[in-house]
Amino acid sequence: MSLLVDMKSLLTSVSSDIFLDDLPDTPDNCLAIYHAGGQDSKHQLGASKKAVHETPVFQVRIRNVSSATATTQAESIKDILDGLVNQTINSNDYKSIFMQGDINPLGKDDRNRINLTVNFIAKVKRS
Questions:
Q1: Prediction pTM value
Q2: Which domain, by its residues, includes 84?
């Protein structure tokens, strides 16, 4: 399962500059998607040792020179991902994706760019 690649494919309407597990210094306006842990895998009693569902957590970081644009992008990301159920994304079977908390402001970096994060938890059927 490539969670970050799957989420990137859903967020291309928000930004064309999306990085995975990395946030380079340029460009100024971009998104980064990070693995952020997860919950225990779910196993089915009497089945093989292989997990039935995984529950990864991921974070989307928004960086932009405009606070208004960063906030609009964060809201768009919420609209796209929060409450998504029963979707196949790049051959992976997502049972649900829900936001954890709300938009988290990180303030400005040393180049005066606003940084926000939004955290999500996914439930994915393991193939």
A1: 0.89
A2: 3-125
